[in-house]
Design goal:
With about 210 residues, the chain is an all-alpha fold. About 65% of the residues lie in helices and about 0% in strands. Helix 1 (about 5-25) packs across helix 8, helix 6 packs parallel to helix 8 (about 130-145) and helix 9 (about 155-165) packs antiparallel against helix 10.
Length: about 210
């Protein structure tokens, strides 16, 4: 395995593929069939998101009970990078609605550069029953390690477990991508060896694509 090439490719595609694959599938970014009032509320959230400014309107939308508006609010709150968004987003990771839970995890991960994430929570989300949530948790783990959040190195273990045996090839592919963040870790050689062995067993082209 070309570890250097694998690392470079992973870094280039990680962010684009994660958000595009999850939120598009979740159907929360385009309220095509929304009622007029809902469309107005959604448009307001988009406006707030564009300013990247924390707002009580965003936290209210996140707690509104409307999964579509709450999902957009979760994304907007994450993109503010404001530490005050951490609490509401953490609470939303317990939502029953899968798209909302996935976007809450993704939004929470976006805070990593300025607000250290709780690695225990990220690890729990990596074991979520829903694949879209696991995908966004993988992204959060990558951001957590890239930002050198305390305790982030321990997230290699659940990521390697996903790469080894997750039933969803998309999750395995994203885990392979995220593990590129461990290239400078003290256990980098051991992580790279585990990744190489996983690639050796892997049959899905979508996962093996990350090998070179």
């Amino acid at each position: 395995m070309n570890v250097i090439g694998w690392t470079t490719a992973c870094i280039k595609v990680r962010a684009v593929l994660t958000i595009a694959g999850v939120v598009t599938a979740a159907g929360v970014l385009a309220p095509v069939s929304a009622a007029p009032d809902e469309q107005l509320g959604y448009r307001r959230l988009v406006e707030l998101e564009s300013t990247r400014t924390f707002s009580d309107e965003l936290t209210a939308a996140l707690a509104s009970g409307d999964a579509r508006l709450a999902g957009r609010a979760a994304l907007a709150l994450g993109r503010t990078g404001d530490p005050r968004a951490a609490g509401p987003l953490k609470n939303a990771t317990a939502a029953q609605d899968v798209p909302l839970r996935a976007l809450a995890v993704y939004g929470y991960g976006l805070l990593a550069a300025k607000t250290p994430l709780e690695t225990k929570l990220v690890a729990e989300m990596l074991a979520d029953r829903a694949a879209p949530v696991r995908v966004t948790a993988v992204d959060a783990a990558w951001r957590c390690k890239a930002a050198k959040n305390p305790g982030s190195t321990t997230l290699a273990t659940p990521l390697l477990a996903l790469l080894d045996r997750d039933i969803d090839p998309l999750v395995r592919a994203r885990a392979a991508t995220a593990l590129s963040a461990w290239s400078d870790a003290t256990n980098a050689k051991a992580v790279a060896a585990r990744v190489e062995r996983a690639f050796g067993r892997e049959q899905a082209p979508a996962v093996r694509w990350h090998e070179t």
